[in-house]
Structures are given as C-alpha cells and as structure tokens.
Write a structure and sequence with these properties.
399 residues, seven-stranded mixed β-sheet, alpha/beta, FAD/NAD(P)-binding domain, single chain, five-stranded parallel β-sheet, 12 helices, binds flavin-adenine dinucleotide
C-alpha cells in the first residue's frame, strides 16, 4: 500500500463514482467532488457490454444491474432507407456464454443511481455535491483541489474523472479544446406503450443511412425506447445533455428514412428530445503526472459509435484501484494503470471514429463494400460477426 490513504476524485459521473467504489473496496478513503447540486435524471440510454458488466459484478452491483437493465436478444444492422436486415447476431445467453457476462441496456440515470447508492453506503466515501473544481496542484507530497467556493481540499492522490472538458487534465497538461467531430446526435426516449406493438425489436439495432445512422434499443426494463439519431452537420456545436432540440428539425433530418423510424419519431415529445454535438479527442500521450491521474472521458473521450464510453470508464476504475494498491508509490501505481489502459482505450477511440464512415453509407457501391461482407457472414458463418468484438467484450479486467 502506498504512502497514505486519502484519495480525491474530481467528477461524479460513471467514471468518478466507479473509481470511488473500486478504490474504497481496495481500502482507500475517498472524497469525491461533483459540480451538480444533486444526482439527477440526466442522460438517456447506455449500452453495458460484458466487459463493463464484469466490473459492475466485481463492485457487488450484479443484482442491481439486472434490475435496472434490459437484456437485448441480438445486435442487428438494418438499412435505414428500407429497414432491410443486413445481419442479426444473437446476444442474450449466446453472448453471455461467449463473453462470461450479460449484455445490458440501461438508462444512464439508473446506472448512475445504483453507483451513487452504493457509494452512499460506503463509510470511507465522502460525496460533496454542488462544488466545482477550478484546478489542481501537486506539491510532491500532497495534491490540492481548488474549488469554486474558495476552499482547497488536500489529499494524497487525485483522480480527475471530470469528463471531456476536465479541469484536472487542463491543470496537468494545459488547455486544449476538444475536437468537434462533424456529427450531431438527436436523442429521444419514447414510452413503449405509445408505439405500435412490436415496432421496435428487443435488439440493439444500428440503422445505417446516408450521412447518418440511428441506434434503437429498450431501457428501463423495456418501458422506454431509446433513440439516438446521428447526422453529419456542422451548424450546431453545443455539447450538453440538457440542450433540447426542435422535433420538426429532427424529423427533417430523418425525412427519407423508413417507416419504422418515421413512426418512432412521430411519437416524439418535445421534453425528451435532445440535441447534442459530438466531440472527441485524439488519444492522449500521457494520463498521469506524479500523484495525479485521469479516468473515463477525462482521458479518452470517444464518439459513442462503439457504445463503450461507460464500459471503458468502468474498466479504468477497476484497473486504477488495483494498480494503486499494488504500486510501491502512488506515482508508480498510476504509471502502471496508465500503461495497462492506454493502448486498449486508444483502439476503442479509433474504432469508434472509423464506425462513423462505416455506418453512414447511403449509396449502393459504399453499401455493397461495407455491408456486403457482413450480410454474407451473417448468412453463412454468423460466428464471424463476433470477431471484431471479441477483444472488447471478452476482456475481464477484474480477473
Ligand atoms: C449528464 C450526462 C449524460 C450522459 N448521458 C449519456 C447517454 O445518455 N448515453 C451515452 O452514451 N453517454 C452519455 N453520457 C456520456 C457517458 O456517460 C460517458 O461517456 C461515460 O459514462 C464516461 O463518463 P465520465 O464519468 O468519464 O464522464 P461524464 O459522464 O462526463 O462525467 C463527468 C462528471 O464530472 C462532473 N464535472 C465536470 N467538470 C467538473 C468540475 N470542474 N468540477 C466538478 N465536477 C465536474 C460532471 O458534472 C459529471 O458528473 C452522458 C454524460 C453526461 C455528463
């Protein structure tokens, strides 16, 4: 166990809370600082693949996850123009057997709530809401978090889990704007009972289209359908989960799409329609310095086109806590963590970027080139469809 025991965590999203829980489980005392005044009903659907599920199991949250999650039957690709299926690859028990844990769809707020409740039950975690981190400093023996209310918190180590615009990352490596990716995401939650019966199959479905794609799946035990519609646009660069969008404008973006998408959009309500510009960063060359490191979107923000943002944050949390425990010093523990995580997260970031091109094929030659091999594999040797995902879902960082 390194020098001393008090860890500061900046940010109380999925990364911050899971880092706090994993570190508490490894014997550390945590103070977590979050700018929001309280945990709330923000965000929409998140996909938790087997690699993320394994971390939640290790944190003791398997039953809670099963209660809030929806288990999709398959991962399916369809053409957005016609609705025709390119392939459908079983998830459910088949994927659980292959990867060692189930695949879930959750509402971000539900996942956040079970992590938050677990943190409240840990006597060695202190949660401080309504406080914004301005910057951090490291004097070699202690780290300091400078807060907006003027207070300064001291600890033995600091983990910046404060998202894509991380102040901790900025304090470590200087200011650098995140990159607008040229994609805007429309997000919608539609009550299932307001849709025609069986309109949306109980699957993780990617609908590919010209200059955009749609993802549909169920959350909240099947009570809500989650819609994410991505379009290539550069006239909107507001990045916020709280920014509502105009339904007519959203429908216009998907006007030429198939009837299923039209029916789904037809049920949209203004208050659950959000518009979110997608930003990311190139993989960072360095995550840690001395007693300070980063986790989650603070160090590897990515396009959501691999549905792995939350899973990578969960994996970070476990590897970070164990590396810290096993390191001779805090700095050594953080170096080990960074070394173990950087290559994998960079690969997910790059694959997510590549999927933008892959999913946005509207013309026949591009469709044949990109979807033809997938259709052929799905029709002849479906197990081939798993190969691009084995390295992600098969990982178990808790072993
Ligand atoms: C409100 C919200 C909703 C989201 N909803 C979805 C979704 O529906 N689907 C999806 O795929 N992804 C969603 N994401 C992104 C996804 O949750 C993340 O990619 C992933 O879970 C990694 O999370 P993170 O904790 O690293 O970053 P984030 O989820 O961004 O969390 C960072 C946390 O740090 C806090 N914070 C930031 N700056 C400061 C500061 N200076 N001081 C104190 N606290 C600070 C933020 O308030 C936030 O709680 C959402 C993110 C947010 C913030």
């Amino acid at each position: 166990m390194p020098e001393t025991n008090h860890i500061l965590v900046a940010g109380g999203g999925i990364a911050g809370l899971s880092v706090a829980l994993a570190c508490a489980k490894h014997g550390y005392d945590i103070t977590l600082v979050e700018q929001a005044s309280e945990p709330g009903e923000v965000g929409a659907g998140l996909q938790i693949a087997a690699n993320g599920t394994k971390v939640l199991h290790a944190l003791g949250l398997g039953d809670a996850l099963d209660t809030i999650g929806f288990r999709p039957r398959a991962a399916t690709m369809r053409l957005g123009s016609s609705g025709r299926t390119v392939f459908s690859n079983p998830l459910g028990d088949v994927a659980t057997a292959r990867y060692g844990a189930p695949y879930y769809h959750v509402h971000r707020a539900d996942l956040h709530r079970i992590l938050h409740q677990a943190a409240l039950q840990q006597p060695n975690i202190k949660l401080r809401y309504g406080t914004r981190v301005e910057c951090s400093t490291d004097d070699g023996t202690h780290v300091h978090l400078h807060l907006d209310e003027g207070a300064v918190l001291a600890g033995n180590a600091l983990i910046g889990a404060d998202g894509i615009h991380s102040r901790v990352r900025e304090s470590l490596f200087g200011e650098e704007e995140a990159r607008f990716t040229g994609n805007v995401a429309w997000r919608l939650l539609v009550p299932t009972h307001e849709l025609p019966k069986d309109l949306i199959p109980p699957e993780a479905t990617v609908w590919t289209g010209p200059g955009g794609h749609v993802v549909t799946y169920y959350v909240r035990g099947g009570a809500l359908v989650n819609f994410v519609g991505v379009v290539e646009r550069d006239d909107w660069q507001v990045e916020s989960w709280l920014e509502t969008g105009d339904i007519a404008e959203m429908k216009n973006d998907f006007a030429p799409w198939c009837e299923t998408i039209q029916l789904l959009l037809g049920a949209a309500k203004q208050e659950t329609c959000f518009k979110w510009a997608l930003f990311d960063r190139d993989p960072l060359p360095q995550w840690s310095r001395g007693r300070v490191t980063l986790a989650g979107d603070a160090c590897h923000p990515m396009l959501p086109f691999m549905a792995q943002g939350a899973c990578m944050a969960l994996e970070d949390a476990w590897v970070l806590a164990r590396s810290l425990k096993e390191g001779e010093t805090i700095a050594a523990g953080f170096q080990t963590y960074e070394h173990k995580r950087k290559r994998r997260t960079a690969r997910v970031q790059r694959t997510a970027r590549a999927n933008a091109k892959r999913f946005h094929q509207g013309r026949l030659p591009g469709q044949l080139l990109n979807y033809g091999p997938l259709w052929l594999a799905g029709s002849t040797r479906p197990s081939l469809l798993n190969l691009p995902f084995d390295w992600i879902y098969g990982e178990d960082v808790t072993r």
